[in-house]
Amino acid sequence: MHKFIPYVFKSLWRHRARTLLTVSGTAVALLVFCFIGGVQQGMLALTAGEDAGRTLIVFQENRFCPQSSRLPQDYESTIAKLPGVQAVAPIKVFTNNCRASLDAVVFQGIEPEKMKAWRDVNLESGNWNSFASQDDAALIGVDLAARRNLSVGDKFTIGDVSVLVQGVFRSTSAAENSLIYTHLDFLQRARGANDVGTVTQLEVHLTDSADPDAIAKQIDQEFRNGPVGTTTRTKGMFQADTLADLAELIGFVHWLGYACVGLVLSLVATTTVMSVQDRIKEHAVLQTLGLRPLLVLGLVLTESLLLSTLGGILGVAGSVLLLSSAGMSIAAEGVTIAFEPSLTLAIQGVLVAVVVGILAGLAPGWHASRTEIVSALRHA
Amino acid sequence: MPLVEVHNVVKEYANGEETIRPLDGVSLTVDQGDYVSLMGASGSGKSTLLNLIAGIDQATSGEIVVADTDITKLSRGKLADWRARHIGYVFQTHNLIPVLTAYENVELPLLLLPMSSAERRKRVGIAMEAVDLTSRASHYPRQMSGGQEQRVGIARAIVANPTVVVADEPTGSLDDETTEQILTLLSRINTELGMTLLMVTHDADAGSRARRKIRLERGRLLENGKPVSLVKGQTAQLHTA
Ligand SMILES: Nc1ncnc2c1ncn2[C@@H]1O[C@H](COP(=O)(O)OP(=O)(O)OP(=O)(O)O)[C@@H](O)[C@H]1O
Ligand SMILES: [Mg+2]
């Protein structure tokens, strides 16, 4: 079989225009497939994960956009006293765009010490002390820095908020790489609005033995009679609820991923059928020389496999490049989903291409191997 | 013991209500080293008989024994293996693989046999030499003349040293001069390389080059005007074997 591989390559090369079109079509479809997979994975990373289940977010009752959730900051001390609560971080969230947007910028105002204690971030440039000591300082995520072309020392303004970049960080959680951290009191005072004393949400960190659901209930119970009612959920639940609309959309887009696979199948199958029809006589000649029917099937399969695998590898590589270089994310209501490439996804993409290549070649290959030699030889 | 034994072979085609029977109980033996030409009117069944002996078509009934193997009993896969070892087929139109060079076309049949690449190179070299095309080894079919292509086709047919070389109107689409060249080449393959040759032709002049001249008429074979049949003793031997 392997001795005939050069023949397969030469046959593909002979119709290079057709080969190129099929490979590039496959590549585009697999790029979309992997891109969609990347978005889904970003979504999953937000709602799963250890942090998502062990951290509570307290939000104002019946509010969805960060702009409209206003909790008294002193809830912090009440919650901190509850058994099972390890620490509470009051956070002010400001976003330039509350709707779903590819270009939303999300500020989180948090006290620097609390940020240091509870956020798993690594400074890639800049310096922690200048952030902690300067009022309008900001730490920005690497993806945002790349997207907006920002670096340490830059000043930028979004909405009415102007900050000075004092550090660029990378977080273990990809979604955070699109965030901007500022001091809590800075963000409370910004935009002229007098928000001092109110926060958007409270982040509650629990002890290892605490039951998140029980404590969440307890917190909501505590503030039921005011002054402001709360809704407390695990971070995963909070993000899932916030992103519910988007999640539905992403769930739908997921079908487009399958449609891409179908597209590749029909594309590669069409090309293979054409290639087999072009060579009815050639295959008959090869069988006359003594190639077994199964070998002919194998040659056709190899051809379709090469087409789709090559396209698959290119598409997967393209999607990895796109996902990793652009640091893309989508944000809604102050929560960001990062689209991240992953090895699993890449392997999945190539595997899909391989399986599709085999499926696409089976029927035409079978047909080629079963053709009556004598009547095929009469074929023009 | 003859090399090829065709015994009482019938080939029928069902064509709606009527049946065509181009071969109606054909028997023939060919000895090692024979050069047999097969002539007859168009549509008389020459190609059909040749294809049956070459193992690319199935007889309706009868036996075909080549080098002790009854090929009518082989499965498709086994038959393909058998063809690779025993048959060299020269087509009317060369039927070279267009994406392969002359050298690679000639090498094709050897890829199916257990053989080192050095051995393959040697054999392809000998075959290309035999058809006097060594200088064209790296040319593609479209870069060669019809006669050269046919010579590559002949080299491909003889390269694996087959038991029988069959040729179906090998000069059917060539001009007179090239026809002469090819016929001389085929004669040399028979005389110098000692290969057994079975050639279908409608050209009496071409047919006369062969040592045995057989005609196919109304489904039956005639040699020197007399019906061809197996010698009685051989028939008995065939059935007890
Ligand atoms: N697949 C088929 N279905 C029906 N009839 C067929 C088929 N193949 C061949 N025949 C018929 O069988 C007969 C013998 O055909 P064959 O090709 O063997 O003739 P031939 O002697 O080689 O003719 P020519 O000299 O024109 O090549 C013809 O009458 C032909 O029409
Ligand atoms: Mg014929």
Automatic annotation (TrEMBL), chain A:
GO cellular component: plasma membrane
Domain MacB-like periplasmic core residues, every copy: 19-221
Span of domain ABC3 transporter permease C-terminal: 260-372
Transmembrane segments: 20-39, 252-273, 294-323, 343-363
Keywords: Cell membrane, Lipoprotein, Membrane, Transmembrane, Transmembrane helix
Coiled coil: none
Database matches in Pfam families: FtsX, MacB_PCD
Membrane topology: Multi-pass membrane protein
Top-rank taxon: Bacteria
Localization per record: Cell membrane
Protein name: Outer membrane-specific lipoprotein transporter subunit LolE
TrEMBL record, chain B:
Name recorded for this polypeptide: ABC transporter ATP-binding protein YtrE
Organism: Adhaeretor mobilis
InterPro entries, A to Z: AAA+_ATPase, ABC_transporter-like_ATP-bd, ABC_transpr_LolD-like, MacB-like_ATP-bd, P-loop_NTPase
Family the UniProt entry places it in: Belongs to the ABC transporter superfamily. Macrolide exporter (TC 3.A.1.122) family.
Gene Ontology cellular component list: membrane protein complex; plasma membrane
Domain of life: Bacteria
Keyword Ribonucleoprotein applies: no
GO molecular function terms noted in the UniProt entry: ATP binding; ATP hydrolysis activity; transmembrane transporter activity
Pfam family for this entry, one: ABC_tran
Alphabetic keyword roster: ATP-binding, Nucleotide-binding, Transport
Keyword Cytoplasm assigned: no
Residue span(s) of domain ABC transporter: 4-240
